[in-house]
Write a structure and sequence with these properties.
Elements lengths: L2 H19 L7 H30 L2 H25 L6 H32 L2 H15 L1
Amino acid sequence: MNIFEALRHDHDKQRSLVDSLIETHGDSPKRQKLMDDLKTELEEHAKFEERFFYNPLMCDDLTQDKARHSVAEHHDIDELVEELEQTDMSSPAWLATAKKLHHIVHHHLDEEEQEVFQLAGKALTQHQKQVLAEKYNNAMH
Protein backbone atom coordinates (compact mmCIF):
# COMPACT_ATOMS: atom_id res chain seq x y z
CA MET A 1 0.00 0.00 0.00
CA ASN A 2 1.24 3.49 -0.78
CA ILE A 3 0.45 6.75 1.01
CA PHE A 4 -2.20 7.71 -1.56
CA GLU A 5 -4.15 4.48 -1.04
CA ALA A 6 -3.89 4.85 2.75
CA LEU A 7 -5.18 8.43 2.67
CA ARG A 8 -7.92 7.65 0.14
CA HIS A 9 -9.21 4.86 2.41
CA ASP A 10 -9.72 7.37 5.23
CA HIS A 11 -11.06 10.02 2.84
CA ASP A 12 -13.83 7.58 1.87
CA LYS A 13 -14.67 7.12 5.55
CA GLN A 14 -14.85 10.91 6.05
CA ARG A 15 -17.07 11.39 3.00
CA SER A 16 -19.45 8.73 4.29
CA LEU A 17 -19.61 10.24 7.78
CA VAL A 18 -20.14 13.82 6.61
CA ASP A 19 -22.77 12.67 4.05
CA SER A 20 -24.66 10.81 6.80
CA LEU A 21 -24.34 13.74 9.21
CA ILE A 22 -26.31 16.18 7.04
CA GLU A 23 -29.10 13.60 6.65
CA THR A 24 -29.77 13.58 10.41
CA HIS A 25 -32.47 15.62 12.18
CA GLY A 26 -32.58 17.44 15.51
CA ASP A 27 -30.63 16.73 18.66
CA SER A 28 -30.67 12.96 18.23
CA PRO A 29 -28.32 10.23 19.50
CA LYS A 30 -27.56 9.35 15.86
CA ARG A 31 -26.53 12.94 15.04
CA GLN A 32 -24.40 13.10 18.20
CA LYS A 33 -22.67 9.79 17.41
CA LEU A 34 -21.96 10.76 13.79
CA MET A 35 -20.65 14.14 14.93
CA ASP A 36 -18.34 12.51 17.50
CA ASP A 37 -17.10 9.94 14.98
CA LEU A 38 -16.54 12.57 12.29
CA LYS A 39 -14.73 14.91 14.66
CA THR A 40 -12.37 12.15 15.81
CA GLU A 41 -11.78 10.96 12.25
CA LEU A 42 -11.07 14.48 10.93
CA GLU A 43 -8.76 15.38 13.82
CA GLU A 44 -6.73 12.17 13.73
CA HIS A 45 -6.52 12.16 9.94
CA ALA A 46 -5.40 15.80 9.75
CA LYS A 47 -2.78 15.32 12.46
CA PHE A 48 -1.18 12.27 10.87
CA GLU A 49 -1.69 13.42 7.28
CA GLU A 50 0.19 16.61 8.12
CA ARG A 51 2.93 14.67 9.90
CA PHE A 52 3.47 11.88 7.38
CA PHE A 53 2.32 13.41 4.09
CA TYR A 54 2.46 17.18 4.18
CA ASN A 55 5.69 17.57 6.15
CA PRO A 56 7.76 15.86 3.43
CA LEU A 57 5.86 17.84 0.76
CA MET A 58 6.67 21.15 2.48
CA CYS A 59 10.35 20.51 1.74
CA ASP A 60 9.85 20.26 -2.03
CA ASP A 61 9.34 23.37 -4.19
CA LEU A 62 6.98 21.46 -6.47
CA THR A 63 4.53 20.63 -3.66
CA GLN A 64 5.08 23.32 -1.02
CA ASP A 65 2.24 25.65 -2.09
CA LYS A 66 -0.34 22.84 -2.35
CA ALA A 67 0.78 21.43 0.99
CA ARG A 68 0.42 24.81 2.70
CA HIS A 69 -3.02 25.32 1.14
CA SER A 70 -4.22 21.89 2.32
CA VAL A 71 -2.96 22.44 5.87
CA ALA A 72 -4.83 25.79 5.90
CA GLU A 73 -8.00 23.94 4.87
CA HIS A 74 -7.51 21.55 7.80
CA HIS A 75 -7.64 24.64 10.03
CA ASP A 76 -10.87 25.83 8.33
CA ILE A 77 -12.41 22.39 8.92
CA ASP A 78 -11.37 22.49 12.60
CA GLU A 79 -13.07 25.88 13.00
CA LEU A 80 -16.33 24.60 11.51
CA VAL A 81 -16.28 21.55 13.79
CA GLU A 82 -15.75 23.87 16.75
CA GLU A 83 -18.64 26.06 15.59
CA LEU A 84 -20.88 22.98 15.36
CA GLU A 85 -19.94 21.94 18.89
CA GLN A 86 -20.98 25.37 20.18
CA THR A 87 -24.33 25.38 18.34
CA ASP A 88 -27.52 23.73 19.58
CA MET A 89 -27.97 20.57 17.48
CA SER A 90 -31.69 21.17 17.11
CA SER A 91 -31.29 24.69 15.67
CA PRO A 92 -31.44 25.47 11.94
CA ALA A 93 -28.01 27.14 12.32
CA TRP A 94 -26.49 23.77 13.21
CA LEU A 95 -27.61 22.16 9.96
CA ALA A 96 -26.48 25.21 7.94
CA THR A 97 -23.01 24.92 9.49
CA ALA A 98 -22.99 21.14 8.97
CA LYS A 99 -23.72 21.73 5.28
CA LYS A 100 -20.79 24.17 5.11
CA LEU A 101 -18.61 21.51 6.71
CA HIS A 102 -19.93 18.94 4.22
CA HIS A 103 -18.99 21.24 1.34
CA ILE A 104 -15.47 22.05 2.55
CA VAL A 105 -14.66 18.43 3.47
CA HIS A 106 -15.70 17.23 -0.01
CA HIS A 107 -13.84 20.12 -1.69
CA HIS A 108 -10.72 19.47 0.38
CA LEU A 109 -10.65 15.70 -0.23
CA ASP A 110 -11.35 16.08 -3.97
CA GLU A 111 -8.62 18.69 -4.30
CA GLU A 112 -6.14 16.49 -2.45
CA GLU A 113 -6.92 13.46 -4.57
CA GLN A 114 -7.06 15.27 -7.92
CA GLU A 115 -4.28 17.83 -7.49
CA VAL A 116 -2.03 17.20 -4.50
CA PHE A 117 -1.64 13.46 -5.07
CA GLN A 118 -0.51 14.07 -8.68
CA LEU A 119 2.22 16.51 -7.64
CA ALA A 120 3.22 14.41 -4.65
CA GLY A 121 3.54 11.41 -6.97
CA LYS A 122 6.33 13.29 -8.74
CA ALA A 123 7.96 14.58 -5.56
CA LEU A 124 8.08 11.32 -3.58
CA THR A 125 9.96 8.14 -4.45
CA GLN A 126 8.19 4.76 -4.52
CA HIS A 127 10.00 3.84 -1.32
CA GLN A 128 8.88 7.05 0.42
CA LYS A 129 5.28 6.41 -0.66
CA GLN A 130 5.34 2.97 0.98
CA VAL A 131 7.19 4.03 4.14
CA LEU A 132 4.88 7.01 4.65
CA ALA A 133 1.80 4.77 4.22
CA GLU A 134 3.15 2.40 6.87
CA LYS A 135 3.84 5.24 9.32
CA TYR A 136 0.47 6.86 8.65
CA ASN A 137 -1.48 3.60 9.03
CA ASN A 138 0.36 2.64 12.22
CA ALA A 139 -0.46 6.04 13.73
CA MET A 140 -4.12 6.01 12.60
CA HIS A 141 -5.06 2.44 13.56
